[in-house]
Design goal:
This protein has 370 residues and is of the alpha/beta class. It contains 9 helices and 19 strands. It is globular, with a radius of gyration of 21 Å.
């Protein structure tokens, strides 16, 4: 079968003919329809991290996916050939309490594997085999946006973690909140834009920031869903000192999170989802001022990575809500669909202004390319 492979830590990706995955007991064979491209894929292809499966000479890249069930094992009752599915990414360590209850996103040992990232083959291939518990069924009507489900699952978890911290200051019986909670989203890539949509559906007054003016597809969509877009190319001073209850960082910058602490309101929480590069020189930092703001303002900083099956299922519900409330909003995040064979060039050079590039693999289950 065709597959996009890398050989970490060497940079570069290529399309090769590789052996198709064998059947395994209880495994479901899935034909891949399309896959999303993200910064993690580009970093792995750039040799920054990633790990091939034990004993294998290469890693099949890719973790954002949509597929169609081709074959099910005897006795399987939840899935049938022809069903659309999205596969989750992380596989538990088999040792800790969280992995024992399918919450490997909270793995305590760090000995998990991740398909297309760490020690397990990914989805940028013609097909894969997976156990049914790791496959999330997708209604046919959501075929056009379901490839966004994996990054949305990361957003679902991040917001849930932030809101869990915010609940520490509630309730105040007889004294309701004076207005809607405010949220800042830093970064308008796919994760940031999905966070804008998810927070708007939850009733937040949302501001999204990036380093681009209003003449971008992302800025237009932000404004369409009733959020505010602010160009902070000149710095966060462009926010005029405003503070927010919840901040979702989705930029992967090294210095930005420290500046975002200053934009947290009292009792607020900053959730970090971006992964900055390692090995950079130390950035100037007023440690005392930073810690003083965190402690005296009762503020919290939380890191969030990966997601559980519950987050994937919540994402499916939200995708339906997005399209019902703002038709075309979720599908509009897919700025281009390109054939699998172009993957090596795509991971080497991101197209300017793109939000989400999707690789088409099989006969599409989605609308025509935009």
């Amino acid at each position: 079968m065709r597959a996009v492979v890398v050989e970490p830590p060497s940079p570069g990706a290529s399309v090769r003919d590789v052996p198709a995955p064998p059947d395994v007991p209880g495994g479901v064979r899935v034909s891949v329809v399309e896959c999303g491209v993200c910064g993690t894929d580009r970093d792995i292809a750039g040799g920054k991290y990633g790990r091939a499966p034990a004993g294998a000479p290469y890693l099949i890249l890719g973790h954002e996916n949509l597929g169609r069930v081709a074959k099910v094992p005897a006795g399987e009752r939840t899935l049938a050939p022809g069903d659309l599915v999205v596969a989750t990414v992380r596989r538990g360590c088999g040792r800790c309490r969280f992995c024992a209850v399918d919450r490997s996103d909270f793995c305590e040992t760090g000995l998990y594997t991740e398909r297309g990232i760490l020690g397990a083959p990914g989805y940028w291939a013609d097909e894969y085999v997976e156990r049914p518990e790791y496959l999330v069924p997708v209604p046919t009507g959501q075929a056009g946006t379901a490839v966004l489900l994996e990054p949305l699952s990361v957003v679902e978890k991040a917001i849930a973690q932030g809101e869990a911290v915010l609940r520490r200051k509630e309730p105040t019986p007889g004294h309701p909140a004076t207005g809607p909670a405010s949220a800042l989203v830093a970064g308008t890539g796919a994760v940031g834009m999905l966070a804008v949509l998810a927070l708007r559906t939850r009733g937040y007054a949302v501001t999204a920031v990036d380093r681009h003016g209003d003449a971008t597809a992302a800025a237009a969509l932000v404004q369409r869903v009733g959020a505010e877009h602010v160009d902070v190319a000149a710095g966060l001073a462009s926010l005029d000192g405003r503070e927010f209850d919840l901040i979702v960082e989705a930029a992967g910058s090294t210095a930005l999170p420290f500046a975002l602490v200053d934009r947290l309101g009292r009792n607020g929480v900053l959730v970090l989802t971006g992964i900055p590069p390692s090995g950079l020189p130390p950035a100037p930092l007023a440690e005392g001022d930073l810690l003083r703001e965190v402690v005296l303002g009762n503020r919290a900083i939380v890191g969030s990575v990966n997601a559980s099956r519950d987050d994937f299922e919540a994402g499916l519900r939200d995708l339906a809500t997005f399209e019902a409330r703002w038709p075309g909003s979720a599908s509009g995040l897919i700025t281009e669909r390109r054939p699998l064979e172009e993957a090596p060039a795509i991971v080497a050079d991101r197209a300017p202004g793109s939000i989400k590039t999707v690789l088409t693999v099989a006969a599409s289950a989605s609308p025509p390319a935009r």
